Amino acid sequence: MESVPVRCPACRRDHMYVAPAYPCPCGSPTAPPLLRGAPVTTITHRTWNDDWVTARCGACGRHDQWPQPELCCPCGAVLRIPVRPVASIGRAPGTASRPVRPSHIPLPRTAAAPRPAFRPLTIRTARDAVGAAALYLKWLGYRDVVQPAARPSSRIDLRAAGLIAQVDSTTRATALRDVECLWLNALSASVSAVLFSLAGYAREARERADGLGIPLFVMDLTGTPQPVNSPADELVSTGA
Question: Where does the source fall among the domains of life (predicted)?
């Protein structure tokens, strides 16, 4: 596999980086070609265009979208590794000129074990919302997911091995106080925390959750949670 030297612009630490390979639909492992000698950049926010790059399968010639190569430096910086652009000429016959995001590629940095498609629970009541969140946590790989018969004063709706979760089924956006209370409960129990909401999150709540590393999900009435911050994206990518 091709490797390139990488120097972190934040701490000046040197690394040797090898781009991970993912399977093309034809079955051949494919990795974006790295651009040797180009400066790396520190990721401060994410966009679709920056998180995916076009790569060509050397076996079948297919052009497709693949995760942008990234490196997590021990100093905490996440570095974007430049890749060589793929020319549009010589495109494999029948391949679209503008690839779409493939369902067979995991999120950047982590290739999780394949999971079956999530089968949601339609939400008609607040209890359904908790049940849908419990199913989702099991789908992510959490063990021993327990739903209390009655909601405790701590407002913890679900417990699993190493995890507690809260489900906000109200019609208001989840507030900063909800995030902080969940974090304090998780801290006292030495476990991780996840938060689900039907109405979304206040800006201050999202910012605080990002700082605390709490995954945030929103759910619609079909019962399908969607990640809304980076910790949630990472959880979906890696699983429990």
Answer: Bacteria
